[in-house]
Batch of 2 targets.
Target 1
Amino acid sequence: MATPLEKWVEQQAQLTKPDDIYWCNGSEEEAHRIIERGISKEKINGAPVFSKLNQSAWPNAYYHRSHPTDVARTEHLTYVCHADKETAGPNNNWMAPAEAMEKMRKLSDGCMRGRTMYVLPYMMGHPDSPYAKPCIQLTDSAYVAASMRIMTRLGNAVIDKIGARENFVKGLHSIGDLNPERRLIMHFPDEKFVWSIGSGYGGNALLGKKCFSLRIASWQGYQEGWLAEHMVVMGIEDPEGKVTYIAAALPSACGKTNLAMLQSALPGYKIWPLGDDIAWMNVGSDGRLYAINPEAGFFGVAPGTSMKTNPNMIRTLKNDKFFPTLFTNTALNKITNEPWWEGLDYPEGADMEDWQGKTWNPSMSAKAAHPNARFTTSIYNCPILSKEYDNPGGVPISAIIVGGRRAHLVPLVTEAFNWQHGVFHAARMGSETTAAAAHQIGVVRRDPMAMLPFCGYNMGDYFRHWLSIGKKMANPPKIFSVNWFRTDENGSFIWPGFGDNIRILKWIIERTNGKAGAKKTAIGFVPAKEDLDMTGLSMEPEKLDGILSVNIKDWKPELEDTKKFLQQFGERMPAEIWQEFAALEKEIGG
Ligand code: OXD
Ligand code: MN
């Protein structure tokens, strides 16, 4: 007799009408076959889905160009379909579930005709973890099938885990006709179901990532008492060999991946990443917060990644351990058949094609790689992967960092007075926008906990949930906010960032065990310049003072803007957040 899973797959096939159905087993041999199909059979925009790159320079690497209209997440086409609009909140687009289902049914009728439906059984989290979730995604794209094998733990064993269950996590994905008019990413949180059509872009199409592990999982976490967050998870080893684990929320394309893999500028410190994008966090029986990274790969922004900014990522991308590594919408040097992007040295004698396949040279004003060009590679390729990555119980978190990209005002680092104050810090977080999502670049948008595009329910309730998680912990992590993007009068970054961010991390971990000094300001504790270890870094003292100072009178417009943002959530916004707001308003004065 057919299992609920088999029945569900059959029903989706009846609607979408693929030529054939292929159940993936997750083997490496199969991954080679999927790539091969992408080279010889499947097409995007008239061109093969994959081409093979120079294997001696970039082992296991394949190149993919997406449809030119399909290069980033499309937040305006992303909906969270709770039974009522209020539950979705002002932070989400909402459509009534029945209407959304009907719309998707119409769009999906016959959408896989002429194509193969891949059935992808995958786990988010280590199969032995009590926090892990077995999931199924259907897709008609070889690119998505190959990417999901990198980004998740994909394999047959998941089918046994699902067994006779009805309520497994479901995703139905089709690239459709890639027409933005017929592109939609619909979430049905109560059914743990994501239905996506018209896009092959990672954040819209790899449904285990943003769609399930953040939007749907955040709703599950709200109901079950845990947190699904847009956070890096990493260990920081000090010169005595003690490893402290932290989680950090930074909006898309603010250097989360670089932080997760930082190469320390201070001798004796080492970073051991567990993840660069998503953390699931549960309160343990010892009253501490434990984090796992549910993903198994990196889907990172290529431009700006180099031996200077992130040597460990370049080493990861060049590692041949796990097949394959994908490059999407980078430029391509036709002479050497290597991917190229802004931030790498320009190869001598190159014959460069830009991300759309047009001849390009450095005198052109347009970029060669799309600013949101991506690499997709397994976490097991990372030479500094934490040995705790596969620990089913996760790692205990001592500090939570929230941050953003702000040219002015917000200091380099601030420690919140307590958990509630830290949640307020996160609630008023803002960042200047980047290219990871399709919208205007460079304007400040409030992005609490870097979760605005990913929180699958009303953010007022989300803050309440955070406050209640804090109350469950005997030993809650300290909360810090960071901003390494302050600029001077010429628009140049003041803080060097990258490997020098270890100086800030060092202060943070020392604060968690009471070792470092700080001065109290109206917005929290900030290091005095002597509290930061500046060994080996010369910086004008006034500049350092400048990025560590809090000129509270300048905060008035910031507070006004924060108020407007928080007011949207009306009654749902917890009183504690308004108490914190009132305390800050008092400090700023009339
Ligand atoms: C991502 C994003 O791809 O945040 O991680 O957009
Ligand atoms: Mn992200």
Target 2
Amino acid sequence: MTSQQERTSPQVYPPPPDLAAHAVAQAELYERAGADRLAFWAEQARSLLTWETEPTQTLDWSGAPFARWFADGRLNVAVNCVDRHVEAGHGDRVAIHWEGEPGDRRTITYADLAREVKKAANALLSLGVQQGDRVALYLPMVPEAVVAMLACARIGAPHSVVFGGFSADALRSRVDDAQAVVVVTADGGYRRGAPSPLKANVDEALADRARGGGSVRKVLVVRRTGQDVAWHDERDVWWHDVVDAASEEHEAPALEAEHPLFVLYTSGTTGRPKGILHTSGGYLTQAAYTHRTVFDVRPESDVYWCAADVGWVTGHSYIVYGPLANGVTQVMYEGTPDTPTRERWWEVVERYGVTLLYTAPTTVRTFMKWGADLLEGHDLSSLRLLGSVGEPINPEAWTWYRTHVGSGRTPVVDTWWQTETGGIMISPLPGVTTTKPGSAQRALPGICTAVLDDTGVPVADGGTGYLVVTEPWPGMLRGIWGDADRYVETYWSRFPGRYFAGDGARLDEDGDVWLLGRVDDVMNVSGHRLSTAEIESALVSHPRVAEAAVVGASDDTTGQAVCAFVILRADDGSPPVGEEDTEALVAALRAHVGREIGPIAKPRQVLVVAELPKTRSGKIMRRLLRDVAEGRETGDVTTLADSSVMGSIRAGLGGSAADG
Ligand code: WTA
């Protein structure tokens, strides 16, 4: 898809001359980093961060693939994100313009943030949290989410943020894996005009100690919606009781650069999510550096808005750590873009004079569908740069974004990275790169990537293969929580000595990178990573399902959509499934997946079939199922154990597979 579209849209966009002349990142950055990569990163670490003890070491790769960066340096991440800006005289600068979905607003300066973070740090300590303990956060997009993350960072208790859209079961398994001692949550949050419950999910996750959650001693609850919540006196405490009452004085410890900062769970190719581990000094260096250079940040004048959720890595690196380390003013919005109207975003841009906007292609495609006339009545002239993240952006969406949101004048930066990479890896530099709609283009200065063929040999320009990172980088994951072997196996075994990201890519004639999507069993739905195996195991945990296969089928708005094929159990005593109750069963299975994982994982389609296509060794051939889900002729079936299976699947679906 991508390559064809690229050929029909030859338009390229040189940087606007005024931006190019004064850009934070100039072309010489590539040369400096190319000449001495480690010296370059050491310089970034020193110039962008404030260290209690400046590092003399840069990279220790002796334990490869476990990296240590700036290992003899000491710093406090929260001090870097908050206190030092106040000390530099910027206490009155707005850190966060927050807007709740119902329309309530809060303005939080850096001085306010410093005070709240210190109080929250004291509150966590009073709840018994110690350095090194894990704290789970399950919160809506409220300022307390940022405060809680920074409070954890301040006392050296790694946080594990669990996206508020995940279910009680998903929360429990993450709490258990990290052995979190405290959960910070809210009564609920607002989404699409209605309060959704969070505390109730925490209660369910921790209800039956035999099922898990046994590590949790306290639950700290922010009052957001005011909805009724059950209360466990010995376990639950209100944020407004303990944080508001806590002291505003807190001396931040200087922590080792390699002190764990957070664990963030992400979907892999098996049913069990991986806890991606990030540490302090290297991660913060890359978050601050990439935020500053890719978005051409001017902390004294920019108003930056990253529309991600703090529950995903984009929220970690580009709402919390990068922007706050750089001392920028940002907008944080709680809800959905169509509440109360489809013009909500453009009202927000206008109200705060947003200059830099960072969002996902799926949102851009949604706005395209809603129509450009919704933007017309709004003054968007403050915008000067647009960013894209999370999935490949098709040239049409890229061009629409630039034309209608960017009024045909702003650069668009398509940024490729992952939970594992910690920060942006491949992206244009807005004052340097002549952009091409649909291409992420080039590794940033200091980052080394390649595209390899099956045998591990770099492909020539024009070739297609696997995207790898060839040299360690400061923000790289330090492992998978509690599972060192899985880290080595997952990322370093396909091409020894190279980090394999799981993405396919093509190099064009100029050597620019075009991302082609995942090459493994990971799906990307609306920029969210979902694993086929995880949804399959949710489906087979339903009493009526014997077997399930899940594929990601392409979808115009969400990029990919979840399509499930299920075989029902013959032995559960239920009557055979007739026409009428298929519908009810499908609804029940979708709801079941929503309960097991979260609403984002609900399949778009569930197709009840009699058999699944398998190879002789019993591996499900998802490629063929994808053909069915996308309404295509099936490809080569010669490796199937039983070549008649595809015929019977199609016959059973009566040709209505694509709209199930
Ligand atoms: C995909 C999100 C194409 C990719 C930051 C990657 C992208 C996965 C882009 C990571 C992009 C992210 N172009 N694909 N600009 N950015 N991806 O961990 O498949 O939620 O492997 O991190 O998203 O998703 P994750």
